[in-house]
Amino acid sequence: MEGPLTIAIICHPTLGGSGVVATDLGAALAERGHTVHIVSHRRPVRIASPHPRVRFHEVPVTRYPLFTYPPYTLALATKLAALCREERIDVLHAHYAIPHAVSAYLCRQMLGRDAPKIVTTLHGTDITLVGLDDSFYEITRFSLLESDGVTAVSDYLARQVRQRFNLEGEVTTIYNFIDLERFSPSSRDSAVRSRLACGDEALVGHLSNFRWVKRVPDVVRVFQRIALHVPACLVMIGDGPDLPAVKLVADELGVLDRINFLGSEQDAAELLPQLDLFLLPSEQESFGLAALEAMACGVPVIASNVGGLPELVTEGEAGHLFPVGAVTDMGEKAAGILADRAEHARLRAGARRRAEDFRQDGLVGQYEAFYRAVLKG
Ligand code: GMT
What we know:
Elements: E1 6-10, H1 17-31, E2 35-40, E3 54-58, H2 72-86, E4 91-95, H3 97-111, E5 117-122, H4 125-128, H5 137-146, E6 149-152, H6 155-164, E7 172-173, H7 190-196, E8 202-208, H8 216-229, E9 232-238, H9 243-252, E10 259-263, H10 268-271, E11 277-280, H11 289-296, E12 301-304, H12 309-312, E13 319-322, H13 327-339, H14 341-355, H15 360-376
This protein binds ligand GMT.
């Protein structure tokens, strides 16, 4: 199918990589001439500034005393069907399998012959955690089998999908992407930096949704090792369930006053370029979008050697990878880099160079080609 497409993107609106990827993809597709409908229960945090070809559709979820848990999956399916009747939608693109791929399937069944194609993009815990739970396993597998095309954000995740869900069909890797103009070392600004740093110290940072898979207390443990060797302070961007635990660990380790907690209402593209090092000691990470954003800003990454991170953070070029929980080794290595200007400069350049492999244009083009292949059947 040639010419512009109309795509409905279904995503979680909360701060988290899958919502960011989905909305950035929508904006980039609109720039390329396609029409995009973003569907979610709330306006996503990073939805692009108004664009004539991007529309947001909020899914209304009716509360009723009988429903302890309002059935969002059904409300979403109904909203999608109504949207498809109003507009000629070519592709329903579900980001994160649960419950989006299931709602897309229901919508298709409701529409019958006129239904659009379904593309499902898997982001991480929809496969590695939530999807494996007994209460979701079978419906997740079913929704993948029923999708017309399935993509994953790393080879690691694509392998996990095939193995854990015993799928024979194809799962195509399309890596997450980055806008290299928006996330750039040239946005380093001494005024912003001095607002973040405690003084002339090295500035170390972390960005996540503070869930247990991120091991955020380990960020503090690594930072404490760093601070033993070099004057440094830590910037924590984001919010989530582990924030109280993180503050407790920081207090116990005596570094609470060296940490700046910024919350989630922040512009990552403004803050990340100010950092000297980015820490991502996650338990699991199917890709690590926050690491890519930091790298694009010329910030080397110290991370766990898990999931898709080795596909992104090239060892010794863009940063260094360690076994999960190796906080002492991570801290010693990080301190060594920060104390060695030449090595730090080498890694800064390497991080940006590696991020250039994930240029937005090329990867959005891969999604476009994928849609067209699916539409051809
Ligand atoms: O899978 C999740 O935990 C949620 C998801 C999100 O919405 O934040 O994160 C995943 O998707 C991101 C975007 O593709 C990836 O960069 C993250 O690595 C991935 N998180 C995990 O695998 C833990």
